[in-house]
Structures are given as structure tokens and as C-alpha cells.
Fold this protein.
Amino acid sequence: MPPGIPLPPFAGIGLRSPHVAQVRRDRPPLGWLEVHSENYFVDGGPALAALEAIRTDYPVSLHGVGLSLGSADALDTGHLAQLKRLAARIEPALISEHLCWGRIDGRHLNDLLPLPFTDEALGVCCDRIDAVQAALGRVLLVENVSAYLRFTSDAMAEWEFVAAVAQRTGCKLLFDVNNVYVNAINHGFDPRVYLAAIPGEAVAEIHLAGFDASGPCLIDTHGTRVAPPVWALYRATIDRFGAKPTLIEWDTDLPGLDVLRDEAAIAQSILKEADAVAA
Amino acid sequence: MPSLREVQRGFVAATMFDDTGALAGLGIVAGALDPAARIAIYRNNVLGNCRKALAATYPIVQRLVGSPFFNAAIDAFVRAHPSPLGDVNRYGRELARFLAAYPPAQDLPYLPDVARLEWAIDQANIAADASPFDTTALRAVPADAQGELRLVLHPSAQFVASPYPIFHIWQVNQPGHTGDDRVDLGEGGDTLLVRRAFDGVVIERLAAGEHAFLAALAGNRSLNEATERACRIDPSFDLAGALKLHVTAGSLVAFRAPSDASLGISR
């Protein structure tokens, strides 16, 4: 199953509605843009029209937050149909989702909730990913999520679970470096062990974001600049996997577009160093 | 070992309904933070996401009651009316109905109707697009056949009626509103048309005859039937004036013959 048009191994930003008008007007030099798929699950109107205009200027990636790939409930076929309709309209470079759950007995919690890393959960995720890839007719990327708890029923480490999903389904990975770091601190493991367990050929995109460290546990808020240890882990990630399309995500306390472009420029300089080494 | 479904049901019971038995059954690794504190992080995230999404849909309701009241109402709403969709942006259709029965909101009888107005605005923003009315094609229909035509409203068009002056309430609570912000609840009710025009969502007050006319058209009645209904309510109803106004403004976007569904715009 071929992926869509690949993204260039450049830095991009997550495009949020307060920045849309400015991006359309100024067309800043960014490698690509990512939007939340669900924000465009609409029949028409100005938001969808703006995305259709933007996709003519930039490669666009659709990043979903609500498909609930790890739910014991059956796959939400209505949600999948909406995604398929949007993909046909936007022709995105990539489509991604999260390795988590968010729905049970028909109730959506509209959050990225942690899975027990059991054989049963692995089987459920792989079945759903197979079904989504078949329905979309293309490869799906799945992202590792941040978590604030672990289950005693875990039969494997998170990195083993993530690697097994990619290996069994042929899906690609959206490797979120910040989430690996947040989980390493919250659950006490060495993030380099995680990194070493991930098959590099499966990694098709990288996410970077900021976390909140004011409480007893790191919280993945997407509300600050990327933290220095996450930049260090990102360098190690690029050293291991080579240059990959990298996204700056920012969702809460959204700053001006210039701040996101600054962060993207840092990622771009790290990507460029990797290219220079590879050349 | 609990099944995946058991874990997920237990997680909902612990986060949304403070079920301590369910929390104990989840088998959460304690470590530096106890399981209740870990579940509390998710409770805050889930309720916070819903508060944020519903505040974006219902900014005037939030302003009318204040954030603490709004947040408490949303937390109760989320427990009573689970989100049926993976898309939180589309969550909250039942908020007006919930507020009508919510004991702390009983002193604000207009609040559910303001919520219905805000839901209609939200829906109008995402409804399908439509091409403008083809008046040339309409003129080609013989005059004696025009009365049987079905006129089609813009896909975003919705009616909101209230015994309270909800449009006035909505207006004086807009960010940047200056001047007198008092509203006399006795000043009379509103019948409103909410729709998306070329430059955004508009809200218009409808006269009784005009509402009867447009509502009949929305119900797939013929132009003749819609006119009769309007005249029954308002004998001075001006068909030519109403048609010109709503075709020019874009609330009416198409027409079709009684037997021909193809020219219509599905709603």
C-alpha cells in the first residue's frame, strides 16, 4: 500500500485557526502544515474553504485525534467515513492518528487515553489500523501518546508495543519526541532505550512540543516552547533515523505565528546538520 | 487480568463518576503518584477539553452565567449527555435542553433559548455551501407554473424562536459592545433566521408572515402554499417583497419543480 505524496524532510507547524488568515496572506516559508482532521469534518463554510486554499501552497498533513484506535468498541465507521471524505477533498501528504483510546460503550471522552500494553490491546489496535488502512486505501501513521499512568497488567514495554504495531500492520510511525520524554520522566525509563527499539524505516514523521512541569507529573500541554532536553532527544532521534518531516505543535496559550516559526527554524537547523553529515 | 473493555469501563467510572471501587480495579501502577492523583489528571483533561469546546460554541451563555457557573454546568452536562462523537467540536447539541432542566439555571428562563441561538450559529458556520439563486432560470418558468415550485433555503438556514428578546441579549453581550447593555425581558420575543451569508453568519428578525412563509418553504411546501400560510398569519404579507429580499440576500438559493428533486439542495 503506497503512502501519499511524501512530505519533504523539513520542519512544519501545526496550523491552528487563529493563524490561518496570516498564513494565507503572508505565505511564510514553512516546509508543510498539519491540521487536526476533525476541525474540518464539516459540509462547507469558511474553515474548509481556507484549508482548500492553503493546500495549494503547502503540503498538508491530516492529524486525527478522535478515531480511538485502541477502543474495545467497534471502529466508529461514521468518523472513518468523515475522514475518508476529507482526505478525498484535501489529498493530504499524510494521514495520522494516535495509539490510544477515547471511547467506550459509545461514550467519547475526547481525550488521548492510555492503553494497557497487553496482547489483547495490541490485537485490537492492529485490527483497527488494518481496517482504517483498507478503508482509506493508504498507509496510516500512528503516534505514541503521553501518559500519566501505567497499568500493572502491562505485558510489554511501551516501545515494544509501538514497534509491534508497525511491524504487524505495516503502518508508519509518527514519533513524538516530547511524548517519549514526558513518559520517560513520568514512568522512569531511559528515553534512549525507547529510541533504540523503534524501527527507523517505519518512522515517517516527528512531533515536537512543550510540556508543563509545574505539577508532580509532566503534562503534555503543547503550550510552551520545546524544552532543552527534548531538543537533545530530538538530535539523538535524527542521528538515529535520519532527517524526517518534523512538526512544531502548539495548542494551548497559542502564541504569535513568529514564535512557531522560530521553533520550526531550530528544528530545520538540526535537520540541515543531519543532511550535511549524511552527504 | 481485566479485559480491555473492563479497563476502559473502569477508567470512565473512575474519571467521570469518581467510582473508587472501579479505580481500585484498574490496577494502576502507583510509583511517585498515587492512582487517584493520576486519574485526577485525566479527569481535569477530559472535563477541561469539554469546557473549552463548549465555551467556543456557547460564548454568550458562558458570559451570561460566568465561568464558575458555566464550568459546573458543563461538568454536569458531560456526565449526563456523553459526547457521541470523536469530534469534540460538534459536541453540545443538547445543552439547551439540559439547561432548561438544570436546577441552578431556573432563574434564567431565557438561557436555553440563547443556547439554541448559539448552537444554530455554530451549525450555520459549517453547513454546506450553495451556489446563488439562478434568477434567469426562474424567469424561464411559465408564470402559471411558478406557484407549484419548491424554493430551497440555504443549507445553513435555521429558525430560532423564543418568548424572550434573545437577539437583543445576544447583541449586548458581544465582545466590544458599547452603550446600554440592559435588556428588558418584557420587551417581547424573537423569531430569528440564522444563516451563513457570503461574509459570515447573520441573524435576522423575521416578521410573523415572513417566518410562516420561509418555514413552509423549508418544509417543502409549494410557493402557493407557503404564500397562503403567510397571508393567513399576516394578511398584508408581501410575496414579491419577501422573495426579492431573500433571493438577493441569499437565504433562498434554488428552486425545483414538485416532481424534480435534482435541482434541490439536500438539507
About this structure: Chain B has two domains: 1-108, 109-267. Confidence is low (pLDDT under 50) at residues 262-267 of chain B. Residues 227 and 239 of chain B are 7 Å apart (CA to CA).
